[in-house]
Inverse folding.
């Protein structure tokens, strides 16, 4: 059976290529797949009849108990035969139905074959989850098929409606399946469940869910409306999906579970109400239609109601009649749809008011149509008659097994009236499609087709009826004649279907027969046929009567209105939750924290009995600093002040780390805090010095309220969490393991590079991403930008480079008192350099002057020192930098190598190098940074990550696990014994990544912003500022490094205009 | 098992860092948000220490007897957290700078598209108008009746 599915899948996938190659004849090849399913079913006929049930199980996902298990019993056999047989015939029909040039045939062929495969899977699956999967696949494929003409709005809407309705049902069904699977002793096995059905309230609810799913698929009220709308699909699709296959999936589900659950009164109530209601509503609506396909669609709705009623009622005889009806209905309804397709193709219309003489022109088609209709209305001696006769017999005899006797009478009456309507619309269909009639010319007909083409509104000349290919008529005729043939041997049918009917257990076995003797059933049949004929004869009166009745609310409109309400509701929910405000979102998250974990704290825990005031009295001092600093930072209205105060808190935390016995943490925290401060100042020089005012006092109190609540909850957590430990600490064996396997004495470092190296690996990846993010936010167009080498600019005399000059000029006249300015000038003069005024007035001249003067009077301490604006240079700083830089690098290398056994390691070492770079940058400007480390940070980041990952993979190659350390010991003549641990290289990778991160930060937030500032304040503005005599044009700024925000006109503000 | 009773002084520090941190986090200025985040980060790092039990000697073999060591596992976690916070700081600063470039300030504004949806929802206005929203237009099956297939040799 798995092989059948594979065949479908292969052909479905090959369909586009086949259609490209063979054109529409490719459908003949695709027909092989469903035909093979039908042949497979036929080959097992005898054995299945004797109670042999072939099964096949392939393990798929054993962890959730999902296996590819298939099983064929009588019901599956019947469904497989129908799905395969009708599918093959429909595909053959397709090969002649569509124009060779029709659009989308490749997709259509593939989807239709895939749908047939999904149906095969659905009816053979013995695992409920697997069955559900195929169920949903049929929904998706039918969506694609109904929406085949996706350029038409009607098709799209019909497809959308069908998928929404059936998926909603499918979800209900999933709930039912899961409940059943969890309560059943045999898991999700379908046959196991039915052999030993569980009971209980939950199971009853599950069964109701299953019925909802089945009803949505089988188009029972109140979800019946999607089926007529789905007639927007191509006719072969209607013939297959909406007669033989998909809607029958719902019926299949009912028939599958009825033996186990039809004794539940809720089951019977739903089946009777939905079945009878659908039967009557469908029949009534079918009478009103003028479109042949819509007559059949509503007819199908009506018949599905009847079939579900029969197979779900619970008595053996009714079930037998229902099964016979499933077969008969598949044959006659598919044949009728195919016939309509032929008429449509031949005449160009399906409107029965515009058709005449079709039967005379196409006798074979007419024969097929008439035979199929006769079967539908239950005319002897056809399959439909046999089934309906058995149904009436069963209903009259057994009534409703569970329920009062009047219910049985009611059901008989409903079925009789429904059949009456079936006779009437069936006759009307035959008359409308094939009869030769005088057309009343006054019927108003829409003068346009759906595509907007003008159509001839006068009657169609019969001469226009074109001959159709035998491939088109063949399938319809085959199905219609089959209805006659199968009826000839009713006892064989009875024997074939009886095994499933017998599993119902209630009532006596029914019989299929052509002549059951004179009895109430026969009388009813005669009366139905007669009265139906009268209804058809008096069709004018009926039409007028139907027109005079008020239209009940149409389900389609209800659906539309509810979808509109859903949209509104969605918009309202979105409006409440998606406020677009960051504080709102964060506040919501934090409130959840307070309510969730906070609630648990309050309700289920108690404060620890034993607390310690402190581990060490020295802890009190940093804590006091932390409390004061954090409050001051929160209250500060100046950016720089807030940042600096925050730094106090940070350093105090580092001290706490040290007191706690965590020297690695203290070291890292101090270093990171330093870098953070520098980086923040680098950016804050560009931002306004003060935070903007937020006058809403109310919101401040709300924020404070949330903050205090969160703080209390976290303090509660801090008190409770330590005592909540139930097991031995994970790290209990770390000391021993670290030395034995990691080869290091510093347990924290070994943890980072070996025991929990995966964490570190993830972390340095994050660093890489963050560094890239920073660079892209600042550089915008290219990640790295150029590397500023001092040599390039010092030799280039055509330009003057005055790093930080702009800020000097902007600051000096603006915020700094006059005597400062004088001091600057004086210092510049003593240094033998040009004065500020000279720079502004004649920058080029000043540069050349400096170029000559500098080498003689001054030693070069830093290579890029000369690129700085003279007022920004500090010789002392340059000298100190010169002395410090190499010591810091050596210290970093020491930290890196000693980190395995003493505080240090790749992180700390990397940050030390970073700080060294910061010092160089601050002393010598952006060109100094380029001189200090003339590589792109991306190279460092990439190399670092590669090194770390490479060490991990290397261990794999050496036969260990990923990231496992290898200890290599060897003797060197001079050094003695050397112990090398491979995780050192991992740490080296970390080291490089951290350097890359800091370099990236400095290049972006330092150098690049410098460059943008220098461009932002061109010489003209400098000149203007100075000629006004150091006037007070710019607003006063007390912070020397800040400039007034030049705002959106800054270069780079316009996207992509970055030079 | 080491002494797991909580340390009140550290708990006070954690509380102060969280309260001020959250207060700043709910601001609109990115700089304040960032400061708040760093404060919360420090608080969370201390929380790790408290969760790891009492203080002790540095977890370095040979320097401290094993039974006197502080718990190394939370320390390793906090170490990575400290460095990640640095990366995050730089990233948010870059965002603040970019915001300043584009708008002249570093405040997080409300999402305009979200505000538009809020306004529309308040009016109960449909996002679009077409024949579907008209109650008395023809039903979908009437439309289906007019659809025709691209058939082989009909007159169409």
């Amino acid at each position: 059976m798995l092989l059948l599915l594979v065949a479908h899948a292969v052909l479905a996938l090959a369909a586009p290529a086949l259609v490209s190659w063979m054109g529409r004849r490719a459908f003949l090849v695709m027909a092989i797949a469903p035909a093979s399913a039908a042949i497979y079913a036929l080959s097992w006929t005898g054995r299945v009849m004797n109670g042999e049930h072939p099964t096949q199980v392939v393990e798929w996902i054993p962890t959730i108990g999902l296996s590819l298990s298939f099983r064929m019993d009588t019901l599956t056999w019947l469904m497989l035969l129908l799905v395969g047989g009708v599918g093959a015939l429909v595909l053959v029909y397709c090969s002649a139905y569509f124009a060779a040039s029709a659009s989308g045939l490749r997709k259509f062929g593939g989807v239709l074959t895939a749908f047939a495969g999904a149906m095969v899977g659905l009816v053979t699956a013995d695992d409920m989850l697997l069955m559900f999967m195929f169920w949903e696949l049929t929904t998706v494929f039918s969506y694609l098929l109904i929406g085949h003409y996706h350029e038409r709005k009607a098709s799209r809407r019909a497809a959308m409606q069908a998928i929404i309705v059936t998926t909603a049902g499918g979800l209900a069904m999933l709930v039912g399946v899961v409940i059943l699977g969890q309560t059943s002793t045999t898991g999700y096995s379908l046959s196991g469940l039915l052999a030993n059905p569980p009971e209980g309230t939950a199971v009853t609810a599950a069964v109701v869910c299953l019925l909802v799913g089945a009803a949505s698929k089988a188009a029972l009220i109140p979800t019946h409306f999607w089926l007529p709308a789905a007639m927007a699909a191509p006719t072969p699709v209607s013939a297959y999906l909406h007669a033989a296959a998909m809607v029958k999936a719902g019926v299949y589900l009912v028939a599958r579970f009825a033996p186990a659950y039809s004794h539940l009164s809720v089951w019977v109530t739903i089946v009777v109400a939905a079945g009878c209601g659908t039967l009557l509503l469908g029949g009534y609506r079918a009478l009103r239609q003028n479109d042949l396909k819509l007559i059949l669609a509503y007819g199908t709705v009506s018949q599905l109601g009847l079939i579900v009623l029969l197979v779900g009622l619970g008595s053996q005889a009714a079930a037998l009649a229902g099964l016979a009806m499933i077969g008969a209905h598949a044959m006659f309804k598919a044949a009728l749809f195919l016939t309509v397709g032929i008429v449509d193709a031949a005449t160009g219309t399906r409107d029965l008011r515009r058709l005449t003489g079709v039967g005379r022109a196409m006798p074979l088609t007419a024969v097929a149509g008439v035979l199929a209709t006769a079967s539908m209305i239950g005319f002897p001696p056809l399959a439909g008659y046999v089934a309906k006769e058995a149904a009436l017999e069963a209903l009259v005899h057994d009534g409703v097994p569970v329920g009062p006797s009047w219910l049985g009478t009611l059901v008989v009456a409903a079925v009789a009236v429904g059949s009456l309507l079936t006779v009437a619309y069936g006759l009307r269909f035959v008359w409308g499609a094939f009869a030769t009639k005088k057309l009343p010319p006054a019927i108003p007909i829409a003068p346009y087709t759906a595509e907007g083409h003008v159509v001839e509104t006068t009657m169609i000349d019969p001469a226009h009826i074109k001959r159709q290919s035998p491939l088109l008529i063949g399938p319809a005729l085959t199905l219609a004649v089959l209805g006659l043939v199968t009826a000839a041997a009713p006892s064989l049918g009875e024997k074939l279907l009886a095994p499933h009917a017998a599993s119902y257990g209630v009532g006596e076995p029914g019989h299929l027969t052509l002549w059951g003797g004179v009895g109430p059933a026969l009388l009813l049949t005669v009366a139905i046929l007669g009265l139906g004929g009268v209804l058809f004869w008096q069709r004018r009166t009926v039409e007028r009567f139907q027109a005079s009745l008020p239209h009940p609310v149409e389900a389609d409109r209800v659906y539309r209105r509810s979808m509109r309400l859903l949209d509104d509701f969605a918009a309202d929910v979105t409006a409440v939750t998606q406020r677009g405000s960051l504080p709102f979102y964060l506040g919501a998250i934090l409130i959840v924290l307070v309510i969730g974990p906070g609630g648990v704290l309050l309700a289920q825990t108690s404060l620890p009995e034993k607390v310690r005031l402190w581990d060490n009295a020295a802890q009190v001092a940093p804590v006091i600093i932390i409390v004061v600093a954090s409050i001051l930072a929160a209250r500060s209205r100046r950016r720089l002040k807030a940042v600096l105060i925050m730094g106090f808190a940070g350093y105090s935390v580092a001290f706490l780390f040290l007191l706690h016995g965590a020297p690695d943490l203290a070291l890292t925290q101090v270093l990171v805090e330093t870098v953070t401060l520098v980086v923040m100042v680098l950016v804050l020089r560009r931002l306004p010095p003060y935070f903007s005012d937020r006058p809403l006092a109310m919101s401040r109190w709300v924020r404070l309220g949330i903050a205090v609540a969160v703080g209390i909850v976290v303090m509660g957590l801090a008190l409770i969490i330590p005592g909540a430990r139930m097991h031995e600490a994970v790290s209990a064996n770390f000391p021993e393991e670290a030395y034995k396997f990691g080869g290091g004495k510093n347990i924290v470092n070994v943890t980072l590079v070996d025991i929990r190296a995966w964490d570190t690996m993830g972390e340095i990846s994050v660093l890489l991403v963050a560094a890239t993010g920073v660079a892209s936010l600042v550089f915008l167009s290219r990640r790295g930008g150029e590397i500023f080498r001092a040599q390039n600019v010092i030799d280039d005399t055509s330009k003057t480079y005055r790093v930080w000059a702009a800020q000097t000029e902007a600051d000096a006249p603006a915020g700094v008192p006059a005597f400062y300015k004088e001091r600057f000038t004086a210092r510049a003069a003593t240094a033998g350099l040009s004065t500020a005024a000279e720079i502004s007035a004649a920058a080029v001249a000043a540069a050349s002057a400096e170029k000559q003067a500098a080498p003689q009077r001054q030693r070069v301490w830093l290579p890029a020192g000369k690129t700085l604006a003279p007022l920004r240079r500090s010789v002392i700083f340059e000298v100190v930098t010169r002395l410090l830089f190499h010591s810091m690098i050596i210290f970093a290398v020491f930290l890196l190598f000693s980190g395995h056994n003493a505080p240090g390691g790749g992180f700390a070492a990397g940050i030390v190098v970073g700080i060294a770079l910061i010092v160089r940058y601050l002393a010598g400007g952006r060109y100094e940074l380029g001189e200090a480390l003339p590589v792109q940070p991306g190279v460092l980041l990439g190399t670092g990550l590669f090194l770390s990952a490479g060490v991990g993979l290397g261990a794999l190659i050496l036969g260990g696990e990923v990231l496992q350390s290898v200890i290599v010991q060897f003797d060197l003549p001079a050094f003695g014994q050397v112990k090398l641990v491979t995780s050192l290289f991992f740490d080296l990778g970390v080291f490089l990544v951290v350097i890359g991160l800091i370099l990236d930060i400095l290049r972006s937030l330092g150098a690049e912003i410098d460059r943008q500032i220098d461009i932002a304040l061109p010489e003209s503005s400098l000149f203007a500022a100075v000629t006004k005599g150091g006037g007070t044009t710019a607003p006063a700024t007390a912070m020397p490094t800040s400039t007034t925000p030049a705002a959106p006109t800054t270069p780079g503000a316009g996207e992509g205009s970055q030079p | 098992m080491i002494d797991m009773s909580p340390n009140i002084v550290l708990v006070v520090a954690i509380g102060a860092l969280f309260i001020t941190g959250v207060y700043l986090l709910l601001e609109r200025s990115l700089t304040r948000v960032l400061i708040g985040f760093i404060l919360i980060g420090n608080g969370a790092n201390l929380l790790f220490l408290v969760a790891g039990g009492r203080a002790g000697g540095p977890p370095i073999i040979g320097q401290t007897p094993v039974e006197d060591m502080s718990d190394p596992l939370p320390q390793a976690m906090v170490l990575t957290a400290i460095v990640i916070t640095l990366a995050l700081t730089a990233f948010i600063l870059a965002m603040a700078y970019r915001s300043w470039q584009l708008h002249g300030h570093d405040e997080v504004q409300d999402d305009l598209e979200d505000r538009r949806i809020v306004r529309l929802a308040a009016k109960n206005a449909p996002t679009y108008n077409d024949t579907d929203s008209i109650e008395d237009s023809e039903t979908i099956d009437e439309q289906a009746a007019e659809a025709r297939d691209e058939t082989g040799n009909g007159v169409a």
